[in-house]
């Protein structure tokens, strides 16, 4: 029974990781690379900074706050590359953060698959007692 519970939990993590990975890849492949300027940085809580970025989206200049939440603020006036959804200016990620999140999601998926395989084929009920 424990084997099945662990396998089911692993499968759920694989599924969630795949959904997150697909979401990130859609943004990366379907989004537009844009240079954005940091307009302001404010500390919403101790050690958690939110930045307001200014960039051009579909011919309009927009200002949006990021949702990444860095522990160190970017300098005002600094230019950063973002990948923005072509249809919605609220959906954007820093290029470096997007790459890091894609790698992390792939590692998460790989580890969850290994757990499922291990408990499916290499663990017997006697070993769990």
Give an overview in words.
There is one protein chain. The chain is an alpha+beta fold and 129 residues long. It has helices at 2-30, 95-121; strands at residues 32-45, 48-57, 60-65, 79-84, 92-94. Strands 3-2-1-4-5 form a five-stranded antiparallel sheet. A hairpin with a 2-residue loop joins strand 2 and strand 3.
Keywords:
129 residues; alpha+beta; five-stranded antiparallel sheet; 5 strands; 43% helix; elongated
Q: How many β strands by DSSP?
A: 5
Largest sheet: 5 strands, antiparallel
Radius of gyration: 20 Å
Helical residue percent band = 40-55%
- Which structural class do you get from the secondary structure elements? alpha+beta
Total of helices: 2
Order of helices and strands: HEEEEEH
Nearest-integer average pLDDT: 92
* Span of the ends, CA to CA: 11 Å
Strand order of the largest sheet: 3-2-1-4-5
Q: List segments where confidence is low: pLDDT < 50 over at least 5 consecutive residues.
A: none
Q: What proportion of the residues form beta strands (DSSP E)?
A: 25-35%
